[in-house]
Amino acid sequence: MTVVSTPPPRLPLRRRSFGPGVSPMLRRLAEERATGVLLRERGSLHLTDGQVTYAECPESPGLDALLTTGGVLDAGAWREAVARAGADGQVGRFLVDSGRVAEGVLELCHVAALFDAAYFVLGPSSAPARFRYGAAHWLGPVRSVPVAALERETLRRRELLHRIWPDPATDTAPLVRIDRAAEPPVPARQEAVLDQVDGVRTAADISLALGRPAFHTLVELRRLATAGIVTTASQPPTTPKSLKPPKSPQQSRGPRASRPPEPQRSPRADPAPEQQPPALDPASALLIQASADPDVALLRRLRDALEAL
Amino acid sequence: MPGIDECLLEAMRLPGALGAAVVDWTSGLALGTVGDAPGGDHETTAAEAAELARLAAEHRAFAPEAGPDQAGQDPPVEDLIISNVDTYHVLRFVATSFDSSVFLHLWLARSDGNLALARIRLGEMAGRLVLG
């Protein structure tokens, strides 16, 4: 009797989860209490003594965006803090001691941004991760998170999204409102997201515009998808390849990650190449119109839900 | 100017306090915890409390008569109180100028807890946490 050890090939289903493990490398680094930065395909995690102290990724607004969009701090004050205290790795301390940001606010925003970016950084990856031993992150100590807690939370978040609505399409694609006239009233935080849906913006764009953690936007968008209010502007299977814009090489943010960033980063940060949304052209616009028919939209949602199961 | 931990430790000084947490109600994440949690699991408690907080914050039935827009308050609900035979739970929403969905969760023993006092103090802590 032979034992088949190779797994069967993956069925051509839409990807919905990323396998059981999160990152064995990250666990090893935690065990050896490493300090430095873990560079993964979608972003980076900064470690100090094996604990995660900072995470960044182009898909989620950084701590600076959360603080400045909400009006806690203006962009100039953030730049000044990074310039004055970045080299000493004490930006967080400086913001609090100079009275610019309340300690509680800094901690709430920092932890929110950390778990938010880590959700994407620890997402599916087709490239090997690298670790650079070195200095702690320039923000300095605010709150650090054990690797095990971060992994548990990341897995829990995947499950949470899947439970709300199993199709991940709204996470990355440009979005449209299905039928404005027929929309039921939605809670205020969903309405803020809905107001940003314009056929072009993606979840990442909306998060940046609102200064809201990207995972929060994903949650609201999946709820809106469940309710049949929002869908993707163009369905990937019906989009001919020629409609996709030329892929731009992803800028490497990694090697400089331990140093203070440039004052302003592009609000439309680079998504992973395979997730680049198709540009909206006349052909896609027709597709949007087609999906605005409530019956077609309903059938499409039903099909998507069945595929994603 | 308290941080998350100072705020939670202050909550634990209330009579009858068993445990406390700062929780995000969109994701269900516990941003900070102290003391005990029902069943010994802060993470599960946070996720479950977050579900309840979200429903309270989103359903119009619980908004003030003037309507959430007129009152200018986000979320429209101040706090939630749950009692069972031996404990109280007080969930206090934290109003912030930045975009957030955070509440304080205090778990109190019913035998020596003072619900009215806990409710008032928790409201003060929620304000100090974000105002400094």
UniProtKB/TrEMBL annotation, chain A:
Residues 230-287 are annotated as: Disordered. This is Transcriptional regulator. It comes from Streptomyces ureilyticus. The lineage of its organism: Bacteria, Bacillati, Actinomycetota, Actinomycetes, Kitasatosporales.
Automatic annotation (TrEMBL), chain B:
The lineage of its organism: Bacteria, Bacillati, Actinomycetota, Actinomycetes, Kitasatosporales. It comes from the Bacteria. This is Roadblock/LAMTOR2 domain-containing protein.
